[in-house]
Design brief:
- This protein is α/β, with parallel strands linked by helices.
- It contains nine helices and seven strands.
- Strand 1, helix 1 and strand 2 form a beta-alpha-beta unit.
- Helix 1 runs parallel beside helix 3 and helix 6 crosses helix 8.
- The longest helix is centred in the N-terminal third of the chain and has 14 residues.
- The radius of gyration is 15 Å and the shape is globular.
- It starts with a strand and ends in a 12-residue tail after the last helix.
Length: 192
Amino acid sequence: MEDKTIGFAICGSFCTHSRAIAALEAVTAQYRHVVPIVSEIVSVTDTRFGTAKDLLERMTQLCGQPPMASVKETEPIGPKGLLDLLVIAPCTGNTLSKMAAGITDSSVTMAAKAQLRNGRPVVVCVASNDGLSGSAPAIGQLMMRKNIYFVPFGQDDPKSKPTSLVADFTQLPITIDHALQGNQVQPVLLRA
């Protein structure tokens, strides 16, 4: 197991939470220290995809500590240099847009700001129904920013949801490896 501290943040996009947990399992198998983080909405919202309680319990079980779920809890990531790398999986269009605009009003956006303050990598695992519409400018802006790396992504259902983008969560471990070396894994755009 590698001796790096990885933050693993989960945002909305509730339909991808099962993929996010599978990715978290892969990350905890590879890295000794994984710090769980959830957005405030995720920490309290039950959906047809599962309950908040079950998600938080599974993350606690995998990481050995309960998830951070507030701006107050994630703010020390920057000053204390707590993480070598932060994963945001899934990263919603809302979070992408806030990061691009420099808005820090949630546990996840604060974790990202805190991490970037230290010049350390943030790995983004896109899951957005408006990735090719309203969130497209944010994706473009973040792709140009230093220390932000994308898990390869593509259209998940071009016929029924033509603007929707979802990352290939199975490529998260290799994306982390590349990001820790300062490189974007390629290709970023998946072929249909």
